[in-house]
Design a protein that fits this description.
The protein has about 375 residues and is an alpha+beta fold. It has a four-stranded mixed beta sheet with strand order 1-2-9-6. The protein has a three-stranded antiparallel beta sheet with strand order 3-11-10. The protein has a two-stranded antiparallel ribbon with strand order 4-5. Helix 11 crosses helix 14.
Length: about 375
């Protein structure tokens, strides 16, 4: 396998095919990971048995060391979740509107054009991070100039390259930005939160910070990993690049297959309010299980040839964005960015050469999977 090949390895297959559960160690504890599509899907819809009402503990590993607020709306259950989500839905629904699609098309054309003119460049920091940051500014109706600071945060908002927490700096930025919006409101998310109410009262400061914290953290590394993986795949598969150039209508199906195949969010946690038996593991009250999207999306009971990346795969009932009441708030935004990339990049570029690549390995005590790139230097040839 070359660095530009898609990561066909599936570290969860043996356990998925055995009993469907992998006991994985995180932070010194064994957390049972649900691996089969039907089990992940069922658990995602059953918030009473597998709850999200667990501040800091929905992500695995948990995030008590990188933030001080509950992320909203994800870290609560219905009906609270539904009412919190309604506060920010108008912003995230914008990704389905023609006006924002046109803005993202213009942004993508500008960034691709600049990259083509440079010829050789590093995709992660010189293309994917700016794309994610500028596109988020568009979604939140924030002036694009503000995204320059977001770009400086790098690929992860909570940790630096050495793994040290920088969550306090993020929260300080969010609180300063919310205070500015309260004094000088505009059309942006910060201003909307400053005015928003929950059940007849104003949002608390921590609630407002919790919304923005999730917004900045939730779709950053996942978008960056998806974009870099797409560029690398098209570099290694010139016929796919040419086919997408000739048939831009295939971009939507191709985007869905990249989401399935890559599953950039490996898994997410749920807390069991009552004791449960999960495979061979007894989960005590208040302890967690994991919903493993990366495994579910490779389940041969659902997907034919699951380890093949088929850009025309249909149907494609993947659950890369979760499913049920807590499905990803930013799914429409991620889809808009990815299908726009898959339309415009093949139209603008006739060849992509990988000059150097450093794949990112998500390495845990119980599994390792390749996911995106820490560095990817390419040479683009204009069409």
């Amino acid at each position: 396998m070359t660095p530009s090949d898609p990561p066909a390895d599936d570290p969860f297959r043996p356990a998925r095919e055995a009993d469907g559960v992998l006991g994985a160690e995180f932070q010194g504890k064994i957390i049972p990971m649900l691996l089969r599509y039907k089990d992940v899907r069922a658990a995602a819809g059953d918030f009473r048995t597998y709850s999200n009402d667990a501040p800091f503990r929905v992500p695995i590993p948990s995030e008590e060391d990188v933030r001080t607020v509950r992320q909203l709306p994800i870290e609560c259950d219905p009906p609270d979740h539904r009412e919190y989500r309604a506060i920010v839905d108008p912003f995230f629904r914008r990704a389905k509107e023609p006006e924002m699609a046109a803005e993202i098309e213009a942004l993508m054309a500008r960034l691709i054009g600049a990259a083509v003119r440079r010829g050789r460049f590093e995709v992660v920091r010189e293309f994917a991070v700016p794309l994610q940051s500028y596109a988020l500014a568009c979604l939140l109706r924030v002036p694009e100039a503000e995204a320059v600071e977001w770009i400086s945060w790098g690929t992860h908002v909570f940790r630096d390259g050495d793994g040290k927490s920088k969550g306090a700096a993020l929260e300080d930025y969010i609180r300063r930005r919310l205070a500015r919006a309260a004094e000088n409101p505009g059309p942006d998310l910060f201003s909307a939160l400053a005015q928003a109410e929950f059940r007849g009262r104003k949002l608390t400061e921590d609630e407002k910070v919790g919304f923005v914290n999730l917004t900045f953290a939730g779709g950053r590394d996942t978008i960056i990993q998806t974009v870099t993986s797409i560029v690398a795949f098209l570099a290694g598969h010139p016929p796919a690049l040419a086919d997408l150039a000739a048939h831009p209508d295939k971009a939507e199906a191709a985007a869905e297959e990249f989401f399935r195949f890559l599953s950039p969010l490996t898994h997410i946690g749920r807390v069991c309010p009552e004791a449960r038996q999960v495979g061979a593991h007894t989960v005590e009250p208040g302890e967690r299980i994991s919903l493993c999207f990366a495994s579910a999306n490779r389940d041969a009971a659902v997907f034919a040839a699951p380890d093949e990346l088929r850009l025309d795969r249909k149907p494609n009932p993947h659950i890369a964005f979760g499913i049920g009441p807590h499905n990803c708030l930013g799914a429409a935004h991620a889809r808009l960015l990815t299908r726009t990339l898959l339309k415009q990049l093949p139209a603008a570029v006739s060849a992509i050469e990988v000059v150097s690549a450093q794949p990112h390995i998500e390495e845990k005590a119980s599994y390792a999977r390749r996911l995106g790139y820490d560095s990817l230097v390419v040479q683009w040839t204009a069409r």
